[in-house]
Amino acid sequence: MQAVEFISKAHDGVVDLPREYQDWNGKPVRVILLEEISGAKTIDQTAAANVWAKTSGAWQGEPLVREPQGEYERRPELK
Fold first, then answer.
1. Cα 20 from Cα 6, distance rounded (Å)
2. How far apart are CA 8 and CA 15, in angstroms?
3. What ranges do the domains of the chain cover?
4. CA distance linking residue 29 with residue 63, whole number of Å
5. How far from 71 is each of 46, 64, 78, CA to CA, in Å?
6. Number of other CB atoms surrounding residue 21 within 10 Å
7. Alpha carbons 70 and 2: distance in angstroms, whole number
8. Distances (CA, A) of 55 to 44, 61, 63, 73
């Protein structure tokens, strides 16, 4: 089986094949339709948002304390 990806518009229940695949006419194919939604979040963005929503405020241990950071090391400037 060969996987091919292209973008087309459906009209009257028909999706046109690009010219380079016209010789596939009449051959059995497996079709997966994915609707393009403009402005939709990607899966990664959605997954990241879900992680923050699920874990926000979930710490049940002692209160977290930020320790002093100390002095910043002074370094010579680059020339």
1. 11
2. 6
3. 1-37
4. 58
5. 39, 22, 21
6. 13
7. 59
8. 17, 14, 16, 35
Q: Which residues are within 8 A (CB) of 49 and not within 5 positions of it... i.e. 6 or more apart? A: 41
pLDDT tens, residue by residue, 9-47: 888 888 888 888 888 888 888 888 887 776 655 666 677
Residue type, 9: K
Which tokens sit at 29?
């194919």
* CB proximity list for 15: less than 8 A, separation 6 or greater: 8, 9, 31, 33
Distances (CA, A) of 52 to 11, 44, 64: 40, 13, 18
C-beta separation of 30 from 1 below 8 A: yes
| The overall pTM is greater than 0.90 | no
